[in-house]
Specification:
The chain is an alpha/beta fold. The protein folds into two domains: 78 residues, DNA polymerase, domain 1, CATH 1.10.150; 290 residues, TIM Barrel (Alpha-Beta Barrel). The chain contains ten helices and twelve strands. A ten-stranded mixed sheet has the order 1-2-3-4-7-8-9-10-11-12, with helices on one face. A two-stranded antiparallel ribbon has the order 5-6. The chain is elongated, with a radius of gyration of 21 Å. The structure holds iron/sulfur cluster (SF4).
């Protein structure tokens, strides 16, 4: 299924730009590889350097052909007529007091036009991380997750995944973040942790990773890309084979009976299967798999939960990221207190396990972990 996608960037067999749009009504400019753009220019009888010029604009986050000042008028017009150049419309941007920005985008393609996704930019002094969505809603129903309360509506295309990142790059150039702290104002890291289960939209996620890593494109190292999954083990195995990027797992319990409820995909792929999958996932030197664990008062923060987690984790290859629960309207859970979170972390550390408590960012704008949900759907399924 993915035999070509690993080398999408350079593989001549994949240069048919029309073939890149399996479920698009129209090819999308940010979903085209530089090679596909070259082929397109060739088909239009235009010189190859035009493709490089267009790629350079895209890399800056400029997708509107009318803003591509060094491109001839007829090429701009053809781009406008034949491609969906800007597959997302920015609907709203919210800025947190800590510099985090949440973006709400509307899709433009066909019957999905108007559906919303959210993305978050998290600036730190030395890095700028974009948390991107891969689906509108989610196919899974993790009850502690705000996105999980929204119906699944669409898989995003690779172009729509890329367009989130490019729009944020353009926004940061146009209006850098101004806070008292010196924060990074460009995109250096990508995490697939927004709305949706990335491994349930496998083809588009692989295509977008190829685009991110492409040397003529954004050229982002796989060490700076993280895919988070709730545990779709066959897909995770393929990710390791084709694009061994950083892996994060939404674990949230190491007890099958509890995880069946908290992360319902566990009913299909049990912890033992997940364990084998993680053992086989390629982890390079100085790298590790992150096990995400949101601490829920009384639900997964008791002594039996702690002991099961200690038994499950492989301290040589994995670290635990303890997450403060961010509440949302209608949530059935309460978060563990900060004091109890520290005690939980200390127990893990005392067993030689790397455990950190993730600093929550953007919770004043509902941009923190597990809080993303398209605002237009707030009242539909709570
Ligand atoms: S935690 Fe992830 S997989 Fe589970 S419902 Fe939320 S977005 Fe979907």
């Amino acid at each position: 299924m993915f035999s070509n996608s690993q080398s999408l960037c350079h593989n001549a067999a994949m240069t048919d730009y029309k073939a890149s749009a399996p479920n698009h009504e129209q090819s999308q400019l940010p979903g085209l590889t530089p090679d596909q753009l070259k082929r397109l220019m060739q088909d239009w009888g235009k010189p190859a350097f035009r493709a490089k010029q267009i790629t350079d604009w895209c890399n800056k986050g400029i997708l509107n052909p009318t803003e591509m000042s060094n491109i001839s008028n007829d090429v701009r017009q053809k781009l406008n007529n034949e491609l969906l150049c800007e597959p997302l419309k920015l609907v709203r941007r919210e800025c947190s007091s800590d510099g985090t920005r949440k973006y709400v985008f509307a899709l433009k393609r066909g019957r999905f036009a108007g559906k919303m996704v959210e993305s978050v930019f998290i600036p730190e002094p030395r890095r700028g991380t974009v948390c991107i969505s891969s689906q509108v809603g989610c196919v899974l129903d993790c009850p502690f997750c705000h996105t999980g309360t929204q119906d699944f509506e669409a898989n995003l295309t690779a172009g729509e995944i890329m367009a989130q990142i490019l729009a944020i790059k353009a926004d940061l150039r146009a209006e850098p973040i101004a806070t008292s702290e010196a924060l990074h104002n460009d995109v250096t890291h990508i995490v697939y942790m927004g709305m949706g289960e990335p491994m349930a939209n496998e083809t588009a996620v692989h295509e977008s990773i190829s685009l991110l890593m492409c040397s003529d494109g954004l050229n982002i190292s796989r060490r700076r890309i993280t895919v988070s999954s709730s545990g779709l083990t066959p897909q995770i195995q393929r990710l390791g084979e084709l694009h061994p990027v950083n892996l994060a797992i939404s674990l949230h319990s190491a007890i099958d009976a509890k995880r069946d409820t908290l992360v319902p995909i566990n009913r299909k792929h049990k912890l033992q299967e997940l364990r084998s999958c993680l053992n086989a996932y390629p982890v390079g030197k100085q790298r590790h798999i992150t096990l995400e664990y949101v601490l829920l008062d009384g639900a997964n923060d008791q002594n039996d939960d702690l002991q099961a987690l200690i038994q499950f984790v492989n301290p040589e290859r994995e670290r635990i990221n303890l997450i403060q629960f961010n509440t949302f309207p209608g949530s059935p859970y309460c978060g563990t207190s900060k004091q109890d979170m520290k005690v939980f972390a200390q127990h893990l550390i005392s067993k030689g396990i790397r455990a950190t408590i993730r600093r929550s960012r953007g919770d004043d704008i509902m941009a923190a972990c597990g809080q993303l949900k398209a605002a237009t759907k707030l009242n539909n399924k709570q």
